[in-house]
């Protein structure tokens, strides 16, 4: 089976910066794989995610996202660090944003929004505006909005860094549940080593300038995983050492 | 308390008139106002004057607002347009709207269109700056959101994100314009177009200062009404804002 994401020879410089952010960077993600990208802040992991998302055009290299063509879906969808719901739309309209412009009937659109509302446990909040939601609910809304377009590749940019520890754990469990239920590939950027080890099939550690892969660790631990598992701890230490 | 303040104000006013603090005959008796009002009403001057003023007001405000929002929006979203019009705006901006009265007469004769033209100039600048700065200060992350969810084209992006995002700023410009239009209206009508400004001028000419005050109060009332109506509309459209 072809990889779902094949990024080859990615190079990117920001004007005025002494070093390129990325240079000759390769990344392959298989269908259904959960890949975490870890690195200290400023290393370029969010930039890498934006290149993969098609939001930033690289100076060199190619990004290929192989999915089945369908006019009623988007190949990839992104969950932002800040949730980024539009304050002037209620939750339902925010979640339906990505469906506008796709070839779906109004009835189907509504049904799909209802589905992801249900899936993310937000059904009872559908008519609320973002300022009436908690940080965790906003973040869930961002995830629901991404799921609504039924992407094959879900990109997540430090989605839980701004929520409290308790909410973070429950959101992590939820993402795993959604991932296992949907079979989508996930590319998850975080600076939290324990989070990466707990969630991912594969942890990629970025370091240096330009950023390179200093560790590509496959985590074969069975799921569901236990946060207190000493094996996770050991993996975390290896990742930490690489950083 | 507010009522007490009003009574005190009228008391001061009455004393000013009774004790002759100003040049005799120039301070109207507040208690004579109802009679003066009835007089203006019965002689069929008040309502036609208000009606005529409303024509100038609605057209001047409408066209000035539309043009101001449009040009302000373009200047903030199109680099080419911004560069192109920058110097023209800098040169025209400091010219007071009333300086255009001369050209209003030259181009439109003494007509409704002339008065509306002068009013629209003041309203234009208010809306031009309010809209341009509201759009410029919009969170750029919203533009990224639009592109990430398939609304990256110029029209889609501005329709789904820029316009609603800048709406509070645009509305505050529109509302300032609602007031600004009244300020220029009276002066614009002094050029001889029928309306409240002209009636005031005529009344002042024969020393009927009480009639002048009747028109001043009429302006105050109509302005308060239009501001109230605008507030209702604004509240409806921006109902998503936290209260």
From TrEMBL, chain A:
Query: Per UniProt, which keywords does this protein have?
Result: ATP-binding, Nucleotide-binding, Transport
For the keyword Ubl conjugation, the answer is no
Q: Name one GO molecular function term.
A: ATP binding
InterPro entries attached to this UniProt entry? AAA+_ATPase, ABC_transporter-like_ATP-bd, ABC_transporter_ATP-bind, P-loop_NTPase
Q: Where is the ABC transporter domain?
A: 5-233
Q: Does the keyword ATP-binding apply?
A: yes
PROSITE patterns, from UniProt?
A: ABC_TRANSPORTER_2 (PS50893)
Question: A single Pfam family, by name?
Answer: ABC_tran
Q: Say which family it is in.
A: Belongs to the ABC transporter superfamily.
Q: What is this protein called?
A: ABC transporter ATP-binding protein
| Species the sequence originates in | Pseudooceanicola sediminis
Automatic annotation (TrEMBL), chain B:
**Chief localisation class:** membrane
Q: Name one Pfam family in it.
A: BPD_transp_1
Question: Its topology with respect to the membrane?
Answer: Multi-pass membrane protein
Q: Which UniProt keywords apply?
A: Cell membrane, Membrane, Transmembrane, Transmembrane helix, Transport
- InterPro entries attached to this UniProt entry: MetI-like, MetI-like_sf
Which residue ranges does UniProt annotate as crossing the membrane? 54-77, 98-126, 212-233
Which GO cellular component terms are attached?
Answer: plasma membrane
Gene Ontology process terms (BP):
transmembrane transport
Report the subcellular localization: Cell membrane
The ABC transmembrane type-1 domain is annotated at 50-227
Q: Does the keyword Cell membrane apply?
A: yes
Q: PROSITE patterns, alphabetically? A: ABC_TM1 (PS50928)
Q: Which family does the record claim for this protein?
A: Belongs to the binding-protein-dependent transport system permease family.
Q: This protein is called what?
A: ABC transporter permease
């Amino acid at each position: 089976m072809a990889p779902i994401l094949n990024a080859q020879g990615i190079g990117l410089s920001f004007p005025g910066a002494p070093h390129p952010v990325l240079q000759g960077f390769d990344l392959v993600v298989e269908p259904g794989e959960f890949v975490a990208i870890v690195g200290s802040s400023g290393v370029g992991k969010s930039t890498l995610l934006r290149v993969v998302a098609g939001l930033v055009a690289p100076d060199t290299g190619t990004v290929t996202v192989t999915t089945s063509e369908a006019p009623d879906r988007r190949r990839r969808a992104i969950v932002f660090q800040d949730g980024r719901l539009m304050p002037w739309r209620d939750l339902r309209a925010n979640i339906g944003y990505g469906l506008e412009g796709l070839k779906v009937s109004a009835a189907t659109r509504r049904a799909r929004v209802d589905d992801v509302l249900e899936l993310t446990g937000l059904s009872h909040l559908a008519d609320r505006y973002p300022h009436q939601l908690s940080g965790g609910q906003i973040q869930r809304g961002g995830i629901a909005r991404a799921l609504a377009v039924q992407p094959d590749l879900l990109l997540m940019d430090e989605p839980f860094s701004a929520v409290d520890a308790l909410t973070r754990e429950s959101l992590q469990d939820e993402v795993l549940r959604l991932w296992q239920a949907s079979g989508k590939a996930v590319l998850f950027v975080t600076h939290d080593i324990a989070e990466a080890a707990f969630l991912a099939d594969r942890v990629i550690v970025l370091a240096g300038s330009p950023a390179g892969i200093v560790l590509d660790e496959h985590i074969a631990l069975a799921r569901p995983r236990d946060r207190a598992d000493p094996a996770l701890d050991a993996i975390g230490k290896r990742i930490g050492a690489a950083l | 308390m507010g009522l007490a303040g009003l009574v005190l104000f009228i008391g001061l006013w009455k004393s000013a008139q009774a004790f002759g603090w100003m040049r005799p005959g120039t301070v109207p008796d507040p208690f004579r106002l109802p009679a003066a009002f009835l007089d203006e009403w019965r002689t069929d001057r008040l309502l036609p004057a208000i009606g005529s003023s409303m024509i100038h007001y609605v057209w001047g405000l409408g066209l000035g607002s539309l043009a101001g929002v449009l040009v302000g929006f373009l200047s903030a979203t199109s680099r080419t347009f911004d560069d192109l019009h920058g110097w023209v705006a800098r040169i025209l901006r400091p010219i007071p709207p009333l300086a255009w009265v001369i050209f209003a007469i030259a181009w439109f004769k003494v007509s409704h269109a002339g008065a509306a033209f002068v009013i629209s100039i003041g309203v234009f600048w208010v809306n031009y700056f309010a809209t341009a700065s509201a759009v410029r200060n919009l969170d750029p992350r919203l533009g990224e959101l639009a592109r990430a969810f398939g609304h990256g084209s110029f029209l889609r992006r501005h329709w789904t994100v820029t316009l609603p995002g800048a709406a509070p700023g645009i509305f505050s410009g529109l509302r300032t314009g609602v007031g600004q239009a009244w300020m220029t209206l009276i002066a614009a009508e002094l050029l001889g177009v029928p309306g409240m400004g002209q009636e005031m001028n005529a009344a002042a000419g024969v020393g009927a200062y009480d009639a002048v005050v009747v028109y001043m109060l009429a302006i105050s009332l109509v302005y308060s009404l239009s501001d109230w109506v605008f507030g209702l509309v604004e509240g409806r459209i921006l109902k998503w804002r936290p209260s």
